[in-house]
Amino acid sequence: MTNTASTAGVSTAHALPSYLQADHLGPWGIYLQQVDRVIPYLGSLARWAETLKRPKRALIVDVPIALDNGTIAHFEGYRVQHNISRGPGKGGVRFHQNVTLSEVMALAAWMSIKNAAVNVPYGGAKGGIRVDPRTLSIGELERMTRRYTSEIGLIIGPSKDIPAPDVNTNEQIMAWMMDTYSMNEGATSTGVVTGKPVDLGGSLGRREATGRGVYTVGAQAARHIGMDISKARLAVQGFGNVGSVAARLFAAGGARVVAVQDHGGTIYRGDGLDTVALSAHVARHGSVAGFEGAGALESDRFWDTECDILIPAALEQQITAANASRIRARMIIEGANGPTTPEADDILQERNILVLPDVIANAGGVTVSYFEWVQDFSSFFWTEDEINARLVRIMTEAFDVVWNTAQQHGVSLRTATFIVGCQRILHARELRGLYP
Ligand code: NAD
Fold this sequence. Notes:
The protein has 436 residues and is α/β, with parallel strands linked by helices. The chain has helices at residues 26-38, 101-117, 138-152, 171-185, 206-224, 241-252, 275-285, 342-350, 358-361, 364-378, 384-409, 413-432; strands at 2-3, 6-7, 10-11, 14-15, 57-66, 72-83, 89-96, 124-130, 161-165, 233-237, 256-262, 265-268, 295-297, 309-312, 331-333, 354-356. α1 (26-38) runs parallel beside α2 (101-117), α2 (101-117) crosses α12 and α5 (206-224) crosses α6. The longest helix is centred in the C-terminal third of the chain and has 26 residues, at 384-409. The protein is globular and about 55 Å long. The structure holds nicotinamide-adenine-dinucleotide. The site of nicotinamide-adenine-dinucleotide (NAD) has 23 residues, from α6 and β11.
């Protein structure tokens, strides 16, 4: 059935699968709008564009576990492979109470674009469980992770689809996933996930890779627009893996991190927060709230922070039509996936605020995940300096291509990244041909 309903003000004329509702498209609706903006630039490859508008495969699983109190709980789990034309699926696993199929589909699709934009030989995938992991004991968390891994074991594997950490998942979760898959296979299979502990085939530099990539493209873009990083003021939303590493690297480059917001609170210090001490505070207390030497801000005031660079590094749909006109930054670097709605994108573009989109800005993580996977296959491990140097080279070259594409077509960096990514995906699609 062709659906011509309007989502968030933009007309969509897509053949929607029956498991989606036009008026509840969520993040998938945003992704569809982003793809539509790119089709005019795809030339003859546009013939294949419909392949981008539906996931190749979406698996929904029931994850039952015994809770510590003896009762049985059921959780909803997903693994979506959006496109695998360029290689096996690759993308994180998220544990969050608001995970939906639409969100996982969008995150998988953004991984397809991102992997193609940095030219690593992967398709795009993503997974998640609809759960607030903070409500589980460590034993319950392990049992849930193992059962989920076993359920999605049908479609993952080192040459099929390789999960990695995302929101609320970490090295320990990856270790349990690797062990569960290996037990089911009867052979140690380190390459089935990335973001593992270094002692289990993980890569040096993986933990910091996404934040390092954010910093790398941010510094490169700053040079393009004549911004001096050492004098820049930063506001960062999310102080987890991505936000905290990016903040520390910018601070090490001389920038002042003036405001930080996380799920527990918002803090402000005009002459710059001590980001290393803040990381230690978060490790102890679980949130930036209550950090000594900073004032508390009411959460909505975060968007009024006077700064040069804003880094959303928490969840999607944070920068919306409601707050985009209040943002005082010159540049936004999307550490998070999907933090800006298309309406907000238009407002930011009108206001001449440069947006470095997620699909290139946060690709550092998957780039070092690719290094980890290569190292696992050859059982030969590189030094951290080698890894960081290769990461910076790949990110810098990829960003140059995106920057030049944006200049050539007079489009935003987001549309430029989609042009580069979609062309590579559809070119691979065309070369492979349609089976059978
Ligand atoms: P994380 O779990 O380590 O940190 C998430 C942070 O967001 C925490 O500080 C949390 O307090 C904060 N947060 C949660 N809800 C919030 C809210 N309502 N308001 C403000 N802050 C809130 O996760 P992460 O790995 O740092 O991922 C953050 C984002 O970056 C996600 O969008 C993720 O998809 C994206 N990303 C992560 C990686 C990676 O390698 N970890 C790679 C690419 C993209």
